[in-house]
Amino acid sequence: VARNACLRRGGEVVLRRSGSAPPLLGDALRRRLASQGQYGFRFGWEFTEVEVVDGASEQMVHWMPGPAAVALPAYGRNVHHFAESVIMLFHASLHPEIYPWLVSLEHLLLPLTSGEQELEWNLGFLDLVLFAAAEHGATRPLVHFAEDLGLWPREGANRGEAPMACFEQLVLLGMTTSEFGLFAHPREADLFRAHADVHLGLGGTPVPALGPEHQMRTFLVERSGSRRLLNKGQVEEAIAFTGLADLHFLNSTARTFELESFRTQVSWMRQTDLLVAVHGSGIINGIFMDPGSVVIDLLCPSFAELTFTPTLLSAGHHFLFLPNTNLSSGTYQGTARPVPAPCFEGLPFEATAMECLPIRNCDLYADT
């Protein structure tokens, strides 16, 4: 919790101190902030400390008294990173004695996001989180986007001269879900799903429990942009060959997540036992499946990223991934691979090898 903290456009956190005060951010604290989880405060966060001179004018466009929290997704317009940036509000509502400042928030700040441009899924998920937290006694804060704070980028403005929005108290919501998942325990995920049923009005039709006489309701999800599944028919045949899948459910539900509303996506998952999906942030929808469900991640050729493992395990699910050894399927939106040949040799692509980044967006033939 930082006092007398401000935000500049771009999500820069500015800490203000008087000339006689000691530095607020020492080297040890900076290292600690940067080491909190894979994302934590490492990606999407930037800290600056400024000395406040008496009588000096500052470009402060907003001053907000009372406690406020800032959420900075590591990457914008991404459902997984957005979810991990705000889910802490629900967890805190279950443990008010540990997080008293989070259960009494007056403002929630999204300085990297425009309310008009944010993904519908993200807005729906945020509304659900705030509803669920309020059910456990947390106050429902006012949500402020970049344009509400006067921080939306303007052409020709230098960053150092950009206006600031300042706060009496500012809580920084770090992200560590790539290590620990969205939930502290599967029981917490059960509770969150129950709130989703109530909030979205999905509790009217009970879903039968999985048993020996019950075929698995299998949901095959594609992508409409990059990472297209080029052999969808073969994948469906392989699923049908097992004899374990409810073929009627499979044939009626092979869809793309990004073309549907948040409520529709959650409704699909509340009826699904097995989710088979091309790798992408939409897999986060698997958290809404009942405990014991299975998620299979179809990876791109020569690519491995197991980011969703902790989140789905914390939701009480089984998470499997299907490596792709068919390098001939490595096309990028219908064109030849625009990446160096060594990226397809040796170990699968690592996130640190930026020249290999296009691999993650290749179309693919899933091994069947």
What does this structure look like?
The chain has 368 residues and is α/β, with parallel strands linked by helices. 24% of the residues lie in helices and 21% in strands. The chain contains 10 helices and 12 strands. Strands 3-2-1-7-4-5-6 form a 7-stranded mixed beta sheet. A 5-stranded parallel beta sheet has the order 9-8-10-11-12. β11 (294-301), α10 and β12 form a beta-alpha-beta unit.
Summarize the structure.
This protein has 368 residues and is α/β, with parallel strands linked by helices. It has helices spanning 27-34, 79-86, 88-94, 120-135, 177-180, 186-200, 232-241, 247-253, 262-270, 309-314; strands at 2-8, 12-18, 46-52, 60-71, 107-110, 142-145, 164-173, 218-222, 255-256, 274-278, 294-301, 318-324. 37% of the residues are buried.
N- to C-terminal distance: 51 Å
Q: What proportion of the residues is helical, as a percent range?
A: 10-25%
Major sheet attributes: 7 strands, mixed
Note the overall shape.
Answer: globular
User: How many E-type strands?
Assistant: 12
Oligomer: single chain
The radius of gyration is 23 Å
* Sheet with most strands: strand arrangement: 3-2-1-7-4-5-6
Give me the secondary-structure category. Answer: alpha/beta
Q: What is the secondary structure topology, with strand pairs?
A:
Layout: E1 2-8, E2 12-18, H1 27-34, E3 46-52, E4 60-71, H2 79-86, H3 88-94, E5 107-110, H4 120-135, E6 142-145, E7 164-173, H5 177-180, H6 186-200, E8 218-222, H7 232-241, H8 247-253, E9 255-256, H9 262-270, E10 274-278, E11 294-301, H10 309-314, E12 318-324
Parallel strand pairs: 2-3, 4-5, 4-7, 5-6, 8-9, 8-10, 10-11, 11-12
Antiparallel strand pairs: 1-2, 1-7
